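Issue 218. Parser rejects a valid record. Input:
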Amino acid sequence: MHADSGSAEPLADDQVSLIVEVFRMLADPTRVQVLWALADGELSVTDLADRVGKPAPSVSQHLAKLRMARLVRTRRAGTTIFYSLENEHVRQLVVDAVFNAEHAGPGVPSHHRSDPAVPTLGRSAGGSRREPT
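Output the parser choked on:
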């Protein structure tokens, strides 16, 4: 499969099955929170549990599923296991999903606010910005 080829050729059935499995793994709020937390770098189960506000055993079970789906990987340091995203593609998938969700809300999404090419609320076409009242 060549995702950057621009062609609309049908995907092979086995490739579709793998893609569906990735989306199935993303269809859980705790797993999305875990992946989002890992977008900034590796964390232990304890740190992840604190970040997502869930018990460590629950987070550990979600991590096992994410690992089986090859979305996260592990690194052992002594008795502590650290988790990180499997690769940059997983990170980009999670970031893009979050950014896409931000477009569902009102106003300009936060990821566009620092982009001068994107008009924000209160900014005129000339580029001056009026503060909200």
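Fixed in the parser; the record now loads. The chain is about 45% helix and 10% strand.
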